[in-house]
Specification:
BCAA_transport, Rossmann fold, five-stranded parallel sheet, 425 residues
Length: 425
């Protein structure tokens, strides 16, 4: 790890912050408005995002901040609690632009992201002197970069169809699998995953029977036992779900409690309590898809994980995503290329931008496709295993369980056509 950017101990990083960033800290910060549920049913997911973004910001500031013609400026994260509610998120957007915050960040809810895109489009047309860009790290409903695409919106996560394609490619190879149950949260994203999941499974494995489809209220179900009982009674050998946050953790806990022994093909089963909830029952049975995972391998990846654990040593804080690190790095680079921080200049610099990953030791490389503002990057499909077994150096959240790669897809392999007709700035 000697030559990687994450080989510094946290103590050394603190020294860099104090010495290397002193000039930037004296300048006015570039404020980034995080609009997220930091309280309410998905507060754990919101706080996990905030940790990722703060860590990325600390790294930019440690090297002096964003280099601009008038001098270096630090980044600063402004927390705007939406309480997991779309109407509150729109109120927070108004608060952000009223404070002349030119970059807003959100991701935990595609329905909220869609509302923010629409509101921001109208605001930017109406008040060009206070425009903002929207960086999306995890709202993955495909329409956001298709029919609802916007020159002000940039998505840094693979959208749902890209993730589903990778998951169902692995599912397709399981020749013993004959019966599948689809379950999701009852809003645009969850509905899409259930609908498109069925379509992909039928296309790739017409011999598989979909024995159930279920949609449930988002963030309001406290007892998933009735759902888990139905899944077990259906005879399903696997569950496919896009559930996230507590809606996923409570679902897998209920499945364990009723004795369901099938697999889980998930978007987010590698974090936020899921491995610990299942324990040994999840080994070899939980499949997840992401742009990276802690056991992806290589010196840079191992060093990134080690450095994050030094910064956030509590097991419950163990939630790291390369895409969020890349997003902040790309934003800083876009501002430096544009020699400006105003929204129009930043949007133009981000559109079509490539990220070589050097700031992350080679990790997170990809391109922000100009045609739809969808970031194209590799994807990993991984399965849950005991930590310490082959390919599983790091566990998740101190659970004793981690994930091992079963399929890697290049950025070119994950790319899909789009229907965006991008409006000019």
């Amino acid at each position: 790890m000697k030559n990687t950017p994450f080989s510094l101990s946290f103590l050394a990083l603190s020294g860099a912050l104090a010495l290397g960033a002193s000039a930037a800290q004296a300048a006015d910060p570039i404020r980034l408005g995080l609009i997220e549920g930091l309280s309410g049913p998905f507060a754990n997911a919101g706080e996990a995002v905030a940790r990722n973004l703060n860590w990325a910001i600390e790294r930019v500031n440690a090297r002096g901040g964003v280099k601009l013609p008038g001098g270096n400026r630090p980044l600063e994260l402004v927390r705007l609690d939406s309480k997991g509610n779309t109407e509150e998120a729109l109120t927070m957007l108004k608060s952000a632009v009223d404070q002349q915050i030119g970059v807003v960040l959100q991701g935990n809810s595609s329905a909220t992201a869609a509302a923010l895109i629409d509101a921001l489009n109208k605001h930017n047309d109406r008040e060009p002197q206070r425009r903002a860009v929207f960086l999306n790290y995890s709202a993955v409903e495909p329409s956001l970069t298709n029919e609802k695409c916007s020159p002000w919106h940039f998505r840094f996560d693979a959208h749902a169809d890209m993730r589903l394609a990778a998951l169902t490619d692995v599912l397709q190879q399981d020749t013993a699998l004959k019966r599948v149950y689809l379950i999701g949260q009852d809003y645009s994203f969850g509905q899409h995953v259930v609908r498109q999941g069925r379509a992909m499974i039928v296309a790739k494995r017409p011999d598989i029977q979909v024995v159930g489809e279920e949609l449930h209220p988002v963030g309001r179900v406290k007892d998933f036992l009735p759902y888990a009982t139905k899944i077990k009674a259906s005879g399903a050998q696997a569950v496919v779900t896009g559930n996230w946050g507590n809606d996923l953790t409570l679902l897998v806990k209920a499945a364990r409690d009723v004795g369901f022994e099938g697999k889980f093909y998930t978007f987010y089963g590698n974090a936020l309590g899921v491995p610990g909830a299942l324990g040994d029952a999840g080994v070899g049975r939980v499949v997840a898809v992401a742009e990276w995972h802690p056991n992806a391998g290589g010196k840079a990846s191992d060093a990134l994980v080690t450095s994050f654990h030094q910064r956030f040593p509590k097991p419950e804080d163990d939630y790291l995503h390369v895409r969020m690190q890349a997003m902040v790095e790309m934003l800083a680079q876009a501002m430096e290329r544009a020699h400006a921080t105003d929204a129009a200049a930043v949007a133009k610099a981000l559109s079509g931008a490539r990220f070589d990953g050097k700031a992350l030791g080679g990790l997170g490389a990809g391109q922000m496709r100009a045609g739809d503002h969808q970031f194209l990057q590799p994807l990993y499909v991984s399965t849950m295993q005991k930590a310490g077994t082959e390919g599983v150096r790091f566990d998740v959240e101190g659970s004793g369980y981690g994930f091992r790669t079963v399929r890697y897809l290049t950025a070119e392999q994950t790319a899909q056509p789009h229907s965006c007709k991008m409006a000019p700035l």
